[in-house]
Amino acid sequence: MTDIVPYLIMPLLLIVAVILGMGLWNMMRGGSANKSQTLMRWRVIAQFVAILAMVIALFFFGR
């Protein structure tokens, strides 16, 4: 079971990175401030889910 934990957490981290990149790209090209704000809110939610998954994995599978 501990072998699949990285395969569950890595996609969550990738999602956070993609959302962050999209938000930064939108801000750098002078896009809509509302869109940047929305993307950053989604990033915070995705980051919370990723950290929660890591904490749960450490709780159950930590040594």
Q: Can you characterise this structure?
A:
The protein has one domain (5-61). It contains 2 helices and no strands. It has helices at 5-28, 33-61. Helix 1 runs antiparallel to helix 2. It is elongated. The relative contact order is 0.16. The mean pLDDT is 91.
N/C terminus separation: 14 Å
Please report which band the strand proportion falls in: under 5%, 5-15%, 15-25%, 25-35%, 35-45% or over 45%: under 5%
Count of domain modules: 1
Mean pLDDT: 91
What's the tally of helices?
Answer: 2
Q: What is the molecular shape?
A: elongated
Order of helices and strands, N to C? HH
Structural class, judged by helices and strands? Answer: mainly alpha
Taking the sheet with the most strands, its summary is: none
Helix content: over 70%
Q: State Rg.
A: 15 Å
Features:
63 residues
Ordered list of secondary-structure elements with their pairings:
Elements: H1 5-28, H2 33-61
Helix pairs in contact: 1-2
Brief description of this entry?
This protein has one domain (5-61).
